[in-house]
Amino acid sequence: MNTPYLRVDGDALPARVKTLSGFYGNRSYENEILGKVHREPDTAKFRAAQPDAKAEGSSPNADEGQRSKKTGRLFPQPNKPDPMPAELAFLFTKISPEQMMYMWNMYTILFIVQCSMVVLYALVLLPTLPYWLATLLFGVPFAELMVQNVYLLHDVIHGATFPPYWWQKFLTHPFADVFSLPWEDVVLEHNRHHASTVDLLQHGEFGWDPAELVFALQEYSWCTALLVPFWHFMGASDTGGLFALYWFASFPDAAAGGKCSKDFWSKWFPRRVAHSVFVVGLWGAIWLLGTYPMGRSLSDGWRLVLPVYIAAKTGFSITWTIFTNFNHSHAWNDFLAGDPARTYPKLQSLPTTHL
Q: Do 268 and 185 form a contact (C-beta atoms < 8 A)?
């Protein structure tokens, strides 16, 4: 396995890693992270409630005996191998500050490539090729970029929560929808999901899980499960507009007496407005790109926005369907449980990277 950024204590860092950030050194970025952790107590709370956060798992939503109020099961204990096999060590290695900066650099590059693809489609492909061919050549790779966006988003949530620069938080998923959660809310709701659902098939076992909206059609019946990709396309995923409305209605928790949380106006509202302004600005720029630069009137901007939106939403919808619903399905987990020898290694390695 190629792990260029995985090192043992005492190894010297490669020169290219030391300069991953133009302004931050490894130590200064690490100190910056510690400061941000103290300023985000909600995130720290739910990260600490996850099974692998400490030696003895515990949940604020379990009873005094640490049993689930839903299933009666004890809160699970971490199952870390001891002694640790060499081939599994990388799974239990804490990510380093230089690795975090590397991941955020990749995130920034991904956003630049996504924007460049839209410009290429509007100003190069459409003027020179038939519409169907230009849209196909753009739509397929653009949707694939959205696939990579989801996987990178999940890895950054768990491994590099806080970006080196404040503006990078706006680049994480603006193409996912025209209305969505800001980065801080995505991090918080996903950590709450892991704190509440520690078993793939027992959603909300240790408290309210915001991802229950994602699994609603899947859990209802086989017939409604077939509608899951369309459910995600409508915005019922971590990065979608429908999920954003659901989360906004539930967090932050009300203060005593049903009053508005003291942090809402000072902390969460400004973040949500800033994120929404950036996302609307991005889609507005795409609208304008599809007008005068392409020789069209201002009212024709939708002709560019629509194929870009459909390609982006298709990529996000397919990925969230596999990443969450298929991976959390009874059928898939029954298949894995019935084949412990893993006689279909290529098939079984596809969607199992989530937990």
A: yes
Amino acid 289 reads L
Cα angle: 193, vertex 277, 125; to 5 degrees: 95
∠ CA 190-232-248, nearest 5°, is: 50
What is the span of the domain harbouring residue 190?
Answer: 96-348
Give yes or no for a contact between 61 and 206, defined as CB atoms under 8 angstroms apart: yes
Q: Could you tell me the two tokens for 219?
A: 């859990």
Q: Is the residue at 284 inside a domain? A: yes
| Residue 150 falls inside a structural domain | yes
Neighbours of 69 (CB within 10 A): 12
Cα–Cα distance, 59 to 66 (Å, whole number) = 7
Residue 248 CA, chain-centre distance (Å), reads 17
Distance CA 101, CA 243 (A): 29
Mean pLDDT of 126-137: 97
Cβ proximity of 73 and 61 under 8 Å: no
Q: Which of 206, 219, 211, 225 is nearest to 181 (CA)?
A: 211
Which pair of tokens denotes residue 202? Answer: 């027992």
Main-chain dihedrals φ then ψ at residue 5, nearest 5 degrees = -105, 10
Say how far apart CA 25 and CA 101 lie, in whole Å: 10
Residue 69 tokens read as 């109020």
The model's pTM is 0.82
Q: Is 342 exposed, middle or buried (0-12, 13-18, 19+ CB in 10 A)?
A: exposed
Tokens of 125: 């492909």
Instruction: At 139, list the tokens.
Output: 């739509």
| CB distance 315 to 145 below 8 Å | yes
* CA distances for 208 relative to 59, 68, 195, 211, 212, angstroms: 12, 12, 9, 9, 8
Task: State pLDDT tens for residues 169-220.
Answer: 999 999 999 999 999 999 999 988 988 888 888 888 888 899 999 999 998 8
Asked if residue 32 is part of any domain, the answer here is no
Residue 13 lies in a domain: no
Distance CA 150, CA 237 (A): 11
Domain count, the chain: 1
